[in-house]
Amino acid sequence: AFGLVFNAVQANSIANAMSNAFGWNDLYVGIAVVALSAVVIFGGIKRIAKVAELIVPIMALLYLVLALFVVFSNLEKLPDVLMLIFKSAFGLQEAAAGGLGYAIAQAMINGIKRGLFSNEAGMGSAPNAAASATPYPPHPASQGYVQMLGVFMDT
Prior knowledge:
Elements: H1 2-22, H2 26-41, H3 45-73, H4 78-89, H5 92-117, H6 120-123, H7 126-132, H8 140-154
Helix pairs in contact: 1-2
């Protein structure tokens, strides 16, 4: 699911950006993204590494250059921007929201940690051990029941 859904979100973002900036058809942009991705992915891990080695420094450099361009082209507004940042960051409402957000985040993190690390099923490594086990009776469903029971017993 991760490989299908999240890649589709990124491809949609690329298509929308190209459509809004240049008026290109979303379908053609999507086809181009799929074709370029296929050439890289089907080339194996070495091609993925070569493409990443080439593209990542260029992306980082372009990002820094564009960010500096935006800052320097609006240099007269920089003091107002910094003032707005500090005004918006240090207030009673902001402190309360930050405290509440921190509390919720800690509760979520602890719950996720317990779910992941309380047993091997949360990490995804339990199927490796289960695949090598011989269940009794010798049926895949009985093996599945044993694995499910381990999760319930542990958590």
